[in-house]
Fold these 3 entries.
Entry 1:
Amino acid sequence: MELERRHLGGDGDFALVDKDGKELDPDSLAWRYLGLFMDCDAQDDEHSDDQGQADGGSSSSRYCRRKLLWAAYVDRRYRGNGVEEYQIYDPTLGEWDSSTCSRSGVFSGRCAKLDCHEPDTRFELIGVYKETNGMYDWWEQLFKHEGYCVWNDNDAYQTMTTWMKVWPDSCQLLDITDNGGNALYLDLMPLSGGDMKLAIYKDSTCSKVSSMDYATYTKKYYKSLGYRDRTGYNVARTYAEAIDTWNARMNSFKVCQPCIAYNVGGNNNNCDDKAGYTNVDQCYKFGTKTKLEVADDGDLIAASTQGSILRINVYNKVYGKGGFAIGTSFPMKPLAAVAVVGLAIGLLLSRQTLIRRDRQRRRRGSLLKESFVGDKLKRSRRGERTMKRGEEDTVSSYEDVESPNAQRDKAYAPPSVDEDESEWAKSINPRGKVTKDLDKSASRRGRRGRNYGGRPQARAVPNHRRTRTTSF
């Protein structure tokens, strides 16, 4: 069944409307990010010339374009007090933040949970929308408006705006081939939970994943340029850290957010964003500054089948999986879950090992005294003294024995980086500027930094593509 289409525009002016065309109060609206998916029915005209010539085909080609999904909701119980009516879920702390419900320390009245991300929410779904022309425009609108205030961290804003200019916006032919001499391509890979990563593909539609991962490709690329292995390793590590930081920052928008931008850091919840607006309507920006369309059930089925979007109930039909459940934080990644279970098992085994060693120590002490002492009375007295010493030894053993987890951590510690950093920095940035750290300490949060224009500051990227407009 086709999804009920709810238009993003009214009579010439943008407005989210209900199914009868009635404009909804922007302060009663909320939204959340669902994730990316691959639309393999898309037509790629922008980069088809280079790929068509490389593949020996025509100038027009099919392409599995990456598209972004988000959903909008309305609170029918809204009373007209703006963001002060809602407490907002903090995915980092795993708890609800009710500080938005008061101005100047005075509680405003209603303080309902902004919970459109939860299965039993009372928010009503307005519609699901897709960004059809890559993700750059959507990210740009989010980061410089509501994102800037939600993070409340200029370094986080600079990091995200820097890397959004680096990620590929289409399937791109690379300079390095695989071991068999076959062409390789680069694009984003949608992951479960609304995450993403860089991936290497073996076809011009970027639908068939290569056995070579991005880290291996990067090392091979720099080695082909005459650099040491450590250079490629460092660049690959920079990208891996950037992806992890990106996905973690996007968690803020996988939970329900007001359409009207806000700030929990004071100023009466007012959001003075990076673009110079105050309390901008983020949903309005999505609708007017990006190439947005209403998603249909085919889009949701494809995204759900690929396993890359968060759970959403669309008119009593559930798509996707995962998300922020009631009273819980975001589900742990498999490796994180394994690490926690492994730690618990390690502690249990460590305790059992200490108990077993204590018993063996006592048993050995008793046998030694039976061998070298003939007198039963002496043996008894010495046995008592031995037991006392055994108890003292047991106490010291709990203090001295190193846990298996500590030994494992030492064994798997990452190698030290002994490369000439100045040479590496120059190889990445021709201007000789050292790449900015991905994330600064929390003590610098809230400070307004420089608005770096032009080329992004952290371009730790080789030029993989045939064109010279953007470096990868």
Note: Residues 84 and 101 are 4 Å apart (CA to CA).
Entry 2:
Amino acid sequence: MNLKNYNLLILIFITGFIISCKTTKTEIANSQFKPLENSLLWKIESDSLSSSSYLFGTIHILKKSDYFIPKGFQKAFDNAENLTFEIDMKEINNPATIMGILPKIMMKGDTSIRDLISDEDFKLLQQHFKKKGIPLFLFEKVKPMFLSMFAEVDLDQNSLDNGEYISYEMEMMKKAEEKNKTISGLETIDYQISIFDSIPYFEQAKMLMDGIKTVESDASQLDQLVKIYKQQDINAMQQSIKSDDISKYEKLLLQNRNKNWIPVMDSMMKKQPVLFLVGAGHLGGKDGVINLLRKKGYRVSAVRE
């Protein structure tokens, strides 16, 4: 596996879990929040800012054939002096950082995935990884949540080598480096990993197996998520919380992080124009980044052209 593919896998491990969630009709029906316009790109303005900043919702990995750039994005990119991601993407290319990450995505002690699931589920997990050409024994001690991306993405060695999959974050980081733009992060890799550590291994394992069983019975689930993304329906993306297992951690995985980002974004925008790129599931809803910025006094509007 070449370095580019290895870095993509690290990115998936760190940021990919949220996109494996699935919409539930009940949550949408019960929501009292006025839905936002369908748009992935939003302009951020304020009388206190010398120049506008922008917010773009990503999906962390998808097939190259589904990759697209919405209208207005190039202008937002050209306007920005700083591209800010959930984490500082430069760290993904830093071998020292990667070496530091690897021990942190492993379970403590002698615990392995075999200890957390039934023999029947372990056989299903083996079969799932075998289909992808990935030897499970290499990942048995990886924290289950970091394996969840493999549950929902048709990702295997061939698709990596063939460049079939692409990451908005990796692509935009390359473009930013070509234009000598500053690259920053809203939070650290260590913080993202610590979030997952707040969820017990047994619950992580249950989420992993639920995801695999769903895919085995309905392989179109990720296709549906990508369809929603391409429709730029950030309301549906925000509601992408599948089952009670996930929804009870929504505050930990989404809401708290959104709130933590606002003062960081506020400080950055006062210094220079910024293009923020975060998972599209963070944008919509009462506790989403767009509404929180508006509560802070910013004018946030959908970009159409």
Note: The chain has one domain: 3-302.
Entry 3:
Amino acid sequence: MVALPNGDSMLIKQKSRVLATRAFSLQSNIALLNDQGETAKARLSLLNRQIKIVRDKLSFSEEDLAKIKKASEERKESLRKEITTIAKRQKEAETTRSKQQIALEQLLKSAPEGTQPEPTPELALANAKLEAGDVKIESLQFISEKLESLIQLESYIPEVYLNRKILIEAKDKETRDRAFDFIQSNYDRLKAWEIVVNNELAAVNADISKQESRASAIAVDDLRLQPLSDLRNALSDKQTILRRVLQTSSYQSRILKRWLTNFDSSIADIPIQEKAKSLISSAWKFTKQIWQFPVYEYEKDVMLGGEKNTVSRWVGLGDIFIGLSFFSIAYFLANRIKDRLRNFIVSHKYIAEAQAKTLSNWLMIIVGFFLAIATLNYLALPLTVFAFLGGALLIGVGFGTQTLIKNFISGIIVLFERKIRVGDIVDIGGGPGKIIEINTRSSILRSGDGKETLVPNSLFLENKVTSFTLSNKKSGRASKSLPLSQSHRK
């Protein structure tokens, strides 16, 4: 082992003591910071409990509301006095402006008739005075309107405080929601008003800068400086009232924002039962809004007191849902009854199964038509409401569905004419076959080799049809060949 010199050994020991001292100091600081953190947490918890206690006990008495209303009325009275003063100033400004207009007209008359007056300093001064007078009158009118706006704002303050009282003291959620919505709507209006006032203030500031630049370009001894100064003063008055309005609206919006924020933070203290009840109430309210959502509005003539009046009616989404549900359920039940009735008739051999199927299909079309009429009657919808489709749309649909309608009408004629029935053996040009179904749009023809052909019903009326069972359906020996449409005419 190598022995260190005494000097190096002492230096190492001193450094070790310094490091140990620093480590102890750091540990002490960490412990102190931990203690301070715990103390801060305890103070914060205590403050939260105190805030909760104060919030729970916070309320507005009727006396407080009366004081607020009285203070608001006093401010409105002061604003009305200002408006009266502004009206007097405006009247004086209009009188002065009339005199300035007369003076300008006299200067213009001094020029020979039919010639332009020479640009003299007197004429420039008269024009400057008239311009300043116009701006002053417009500024006073602007100030009067803004003071009226402040009066309207003061009128809302007692009502807002009343809703604040309801928001704090109401027990049921619906009442609190109405109060919250009222405060929120007023807050939104104030923020929108602030945007408008800021835009107006920016425009006035730009006008003032423009007039200052204009004045700086004029000589010091120019007589137009005084009218330009009056013009800037009028613009400054507009600037002052706008700043006043902005300050008032900003102050009120900050108060409303604090109320809304405090209410949102207090929701966390609501018991779980109240939260569940609130959630159910909100879901039910949303469902009612969806249910009552107006899908279509129409006008209807009604008799009131012996007089004909036109009232507006609307069909809601819930009404349409009920109507479609009624149609679907009724159609389903009618279809089940139809199937049972068809099976009963076929099982007792009253008619063949194919004929029963054809008749049942036509029966369901009739049932569906009457169910549609009943649904429209339930919805109180007159058929005229479908006029919104427009003539062009109806014509287009007519051209697009003319083949479908033609086959449908042909099926009705074939069914009621009974020249061709289920079980007949016919030939429509592609070889003989047996008719096994006659449906609404087409019929099914089965040939001797078992192939089934879908035949549009219109072919039975438009083409030559050979029936092997028309004259004698029992023997099947007679035949008759002619278009059914000709037979129908005979």
Note: The chain is about 70% helix and 10% strand.
